């Protein structure tokens, strides 16, 4: 086993039903692998509430709250605002546009995305953005707001990355980096080190060599090791940069990292 420096999983759905039976063990396994911090994004009201509930119980676990584009048809702003004051909330997310699956009507997705960007702007919170087959429209909408944050689960081209970087956003890199034939390893070289965040998106997007199984935060090390290989950087050096990025974008102050 490769020894890794301390890592943060900046996008992990620990409130998902796939972790219901072994949440404690999952968090323990992550810690053993050096993954000491986790950010749990919500996708609707209930999942945002459970993200907060889990984050309350652990020192380096934080929550993001919001309505995913799939769930924007159920958007309830009053309920969202009612939970927004918790001290463990570090972002609004995950929010955005998904024109691949279109599980909510396009216009609803856009409206709900704008409303949540407005809330983030007013509260001075960063945003965690999900975009699929909708990068142009997403960038256009984000431009209208004074917000920063991350485009999570990035798999796009160098040009796509450039658009995100020009917005001043970070790029979330996950399991796809480890997939055979992925173009992401080449693309990631074009992203400045101080704009990269690591994530698993667990229980989804399981990295090689565990593809096909449930993803979990401990597997972040596979993404991290691959990123070190691709960029030709020592683990300790890259680890430090990634932690710095994470704590900066989510404005986390912690004694668990140094
Ligand atoms: Ni997600």
Descriptive notes:
The protein has 258 residues and is of the alpha/beta class. The protein has a single domain (7-249), classed as TIM Barrel (Alpha-Beta Barrel), CATH 3.20.20. It is 37% helix and 16% strand. It has helices at residues 23-32, 45-57, 77-82, 106-123, 135-142, 158-166, 184-188, 220-231, 235-249, and strands at 7-9, 35-41, 61-65, 89-98, 127-132, 149-151, 170-173, 196-198. An eight-stranded parallel sheet has the order 1-2-3-4-5-6-7-8. Strand 1 (7-9), helix 1 (23-32) and strand 2 form a beta-alpha-beta unit. The longest helix is centred in the middle third of the chain and has 18 residues, at 106-123. It is globular. It starts with 6 loop residues before the first strand and ends in a 9-residue tail after the last helix. Bound molecules: nickel (II) ion.
Characteristics of this structure?
single chain, 258 residues, alpha/beta, TIM Barrel, 8-stranded parallel β-sheet, 8 strands, 37% helix, 16% strand, binds nickel (II) ion
Q: What is the approximate shape? A: globular
Mean pLDDT: 95
Strand content: 15-25%
CATH topology: TIM Barrel
How would you summarize what this structure contains?
With 258 residues, the chain is an alpha/beta fold. It has 9 helices and 8 strands. An 8-stranded parallel sheet has the order 1-2-3-4-5-6-7-8.
